[in-house]
Design brief:
The complex is a heterodimer of chains A (158) and B (154). Chain A contains 4 helices and 3 strands, in the order H-H-H-H-E-E-E. With 158 residues, chain A is mainly alpha-helical. Chain A folds into 2 domains: 3-94; 120-158, no CATH class. In chain A, strand 2 (136-140) and strand 3 (149-153) form a beta hairpin. Chain A is rod-shaped and about 140 Å long. With 154 residues, chain B is α+β, with helices and mostly antiparallel strands. Chain B has one domain (32-153). Chain B is 18% helix and 50% strand. Chain B has helices at residues 8-28, 59-65, and strands spanning 34-45, 70-82, 87-91, 95-102, 108-117, 120-130, 134-142, 145-153. In chain B, the strands form 2 sheets. In chain B, strands 2-1-8-7 form a 4-stranded antiparallel sheet, with no helix packed on it. In chain B, a hairpin with a 2-residue loop joins strand 5 and strand 6 (120-130). Chain B is globular, with a radius of gyration of 20 Å. Classes of the chains: A mainly alpha (158), B alpha+beta (154). Chains A and B meet through helix 4, strand 1 and strand 3 of A and helix 1, helix 2, strand 2, strand 5 and strand 6 of B. Strand 3 of chain A pairs parallel with strand 7 (134-142) of chain B, so a sheet runs across the interface.
Chain lengths: 158, 154
C-alpha cells in the first residue's frame, strides 16, 4: 500500500469504518511508515480534543439542557391533556345521544300501533249469547291453546 | 387504578329498549274502569302464502285452525272505552262493529259486540275475556277471501 492511499484511509480506520482486513493492512503500513504514523497520531489527537471539547460544552450546557427537556416534557403533557379530554367526551357522548334517541322514539313511536304484533295472553273466552238476524253463527272451540272462533255463515257461503 | 369504562354498545340499546317498553306501556295502559279494545281486520285467502308480520305470534294457531295460505292485516283499530260507552269500528265492505264494555267481575272484561252489514245484524254477542285475551270472529266474505276480526281487550 502506498502512502497516498494510506492517508485516505487512516481516518476511516480510526473511526472503525474499515473491514478487519483493510484495517490490519493500514495498521501494518502505519507501523512501517514514519510520516503516515505522524499523520495517524495527529488525527487521533484531533479526535481526542474534539471529544474533550464536546464533553466540556455538554457539561456547561447541562442546566440549559435540563431546562429545555423540562419545557419539552411540559409541552408533551399539554398535548396529552386535550386528548384525555377528547377521550372523556367520547366516553360519555353516548349519554346525550341516547337521550336524543329516546326522545325520537317517544316522538315517532306509532301511537296507533297499527303494525305492532298481536301478543294475546289468553284465549279463554266465555260466549254468553250468540245471535244473528241473517246468518248462521257457530262457536268453534278447538282447545285451550287455540283461539275461540265465532264463524258467520251467510247464504251457505264460507 | 383505572376506572372501568362504561360500555356504550350495551347501554344505548338498553336505554332504547326501556324507552320503547315505557312508550308501549303508556300507550296501552287503560285508565281504571275502562277497557282498551283492539280490533285487527285480517283477510284470509288462498292467494299467496304470506302472513302479515303483525300476526307472526299467531301464525301457527291460524294455520292449524283455518285452511288459508295467506293472512293479511288490512286495518288495526284501538280505542279506550269506559264501561257502558259504545265504540263504533268501521270495517271494510260496508260493515261496522259496535263494542260496548259492560260491567264485569274482578279482572275480567265483558264486551257486548254487534256486527252490522248495511242495516242487517250479522252478529250480536256478549264475550267474557281475561285482560289481554283474544277472540276471533270470522266468516264474512271479502273479495279475495274471508274477513277475520281479531278482538282483544286490555
Amino acid at each position: 500500500m502506498d502512502c497516498k492511499k494510506a492517508l485516505q484511509m487512516i481516518q476511516n480506520e480510526i473511526d472503525g469504518r474499515l473491514l478487519p482486513s483493510e484495517a490490519a493492512e493500514i495498521r501494518r503500513h502505519v507501523e512501517s511508515c514514519g510520516s503516515c504514523a505522524t499523520e495517524a497520531a495527529a488525527y487521533r489527537w484531533v479526535g481526542e480534543m474534539l471529544r474533550l471539547w464536546t464533553a466540556s460544552r455538554a457539561g456547561e450546557k447541562a442546566p440549559e439542557l435540563d431546562a429545555l427537556w423540562t419545557r419539552v416534557r411540559a409541552g408533551i403533557d399539554e398535548r396529552k391533556q386535550p386528548k384525555e379530554s377528547a377521550s372523556w367526551v367520547r366516553r360519555w357522548l353516548w349519554l346525550p345521544a341516547g337521550a336524543a334517541l329516546a326522545v325520537l322514539v317517544l316522538l315517532f313511536y306509532p301511537s296507533d300501533v297499527s303494525r305492532a304484533p298481536f301478543h294475546p295472553s289468553s284465549f279463554e273466552v266465555a260466549v254468553e249469547d250468540l245471535e244473528s238476524d241473517t246468518a248462521t253463527v257457530a262457536l268453534v272451540d278447538k282447545g285451550n291453546d287455540l283461539p275461540r272462533v265465532i264463524w258467520i255463515i251467510e247464504n251457505d257461503k264460507t | 387504578m383505572t376506572r372501568p369504562e362504561p360500555r356504550p354498545g350495551l347501554v344505548l340499546p338498553a336505554i332504547a329498549f326501556l324507552v320503547i317498553l315505557l312508550a308501549t306501556g303508556v300507550a296501552e295502559a287503560a285508565p281504571p274502569g275502562s277497557v282498551v279494545v283492539d280490533i285487527g281486520v285480517v283477510v284470509a285467502s288462498n292467494q299467496g302464502t304470506s302472513i302479515d308480520p303483525a300476526l307472526s305470534a299467531l301464525r301457527t294457531k291460524l294455520q292449524s285452525m283455518f285452511n288459508y295460505s295467506s293472512y293479511k292485516m288490512l286495518d288495526r283499530m284501538k280505542r279506550t272505552l269506559a264501561v257502558g260507552e259504545t265504540g263504533e269500528f268501521v270495517l271494510p265492505g260496508g260493515r261496522s262493529m259496535r263494542v260496548t264494555p259492560v260491567p264485569a267481575p274482578g279482572t275480567k272484561v265483558r264486551l257486548a259486540v254487534q256486527l252490522l252489514e248495511g242495516g242487517r245484524n250479522l252478529l250480536t254477542t256478549t264475550l267474557g275475556l281475561s285482560r289481554g285475551g283474544m277472540v276471533l270472529v270470522g266468516g264474512p266474505p271479502y273479495p279475495s277471501g274471508v274477513m277475520i276480526l281479531l278482538i282483544s281487550a286490555e
